[in-house]
Amino acid sequence: MNAERDDVTRVVVTSDGPILVDGPVEVVTAEGTTVHSDRTVVAICTCKRSRIQPFCDTSHRKKVRPERSDDGDTSDDIEPRGEST
Questions:
Q1: What are the boundaries of the region Disordered (predicted)?
Q2: Which structural domain, as residue segments, surrounds residue 32?
């Protein structure tokens, strides 16, 4: 039974990040290009922000400034230093 488990490729889906795949891997992109990685664990981008597609470059970690609500509430906005309302 262990021999069967050694042949299985482990894929981990993370909640706020990439899909992690035990490597080495060959990834076929949407354009049909095959990309190879020899890494032990390969992170596949799911946020589409990575500059090294199809692999993750941790761009998903960058914080996004909250948007203003339709009622004009800016309570989540960041105020410059020394200014207050």
A1: 58-85
A2: 2-61
For residue 54, the Cα-to-chain-centroid distance in whole angstroms is 10
pLDDT in tens, 53-84: 999 999 888 766 566 666 655 544 444 455 44
Give me the number of domains the chain comprises.
1
Report pTM. Answer: 0.63
Return the HEC string of 24-72.
CEEEECCCCCEEEECCCEEEECCCCCCCCCCECCCHHHCCCCCCCCCCC
| Structural contact between residues 16 and 60, judged by C-beta atoms closer than 8 angstroms | yes
Residue 20, domain member (yes or no): yes
pLDDT tens for 7-44 read 899 999 998 889 999 999 999 999 999 999 999 999 99
How far apart CA 26 and CA 28 sit, in angstroms, is 7
